[in-house]
Design brief:
The chain has 2 domains: 35 residues; 109 residues, Cupredoxins -  blue copper proteins (Immunoglobulin-like, Sandwich), CATH 2.60.40.420. The chain is α/β, with parallel strands linked by helices. The chain contains 3 helices and 9 strands; from the N terminus they run ααβββββββββα. 27% of the residues are buried. The structure holds copper (II) ion. Copper (II) ion binds next to strand 8.
Length: 171
Amino acid sequence: MKQLLTGMALCIGCNTSTSPTPNDLVSLSQDSAVASGDMAGSSTDMAMVASADMKMSTPSNFAGCQNFTDLTNQVAPIIQFGGELGQSYSPKCAIVSPSQTVTFSGSFGAHSLKGLVTNPTADIPDQSSGVTASATFKVVGNYGYYCNTHGNPNGTGMAGLIKVVAAERWR
Ligand SMILES: [Cu+2]
């Protein structure tokens, strides 16, 4: 009787449709063999390509940005944060021209600023003290940033995006 019960317990689920059939197992192992073969052949190349892509890959909708505030006509554009704005930047999504200087204004002690490593250049400073910090953008592209306390490098929470666009490209 004890042996019978043990045998029944072991068989529970062993014939369900979710169990892989022998054919499935064969094709799975063939796929993984191909994949690992590719990886072994070019792992160094793949790493180099990935890091090169990441340099330029801040998404154009970072921080959920779809509608952008045009700051290109402003002599001294300012992005404010904290204080009455709470855990947000204003404007959160901004467009500037190359060589324009943007000033972040607010308490960096309460809202430590971080630029994304995927930005084209590291113009947005890491700033954790003081109340103003400036960034001059010489290279077109998408520059994401976030609050190290209330935001994330993936753009959730307190984060923003500066789009640096040559005038003839979007007017
Ligand atoms: Cu913050």
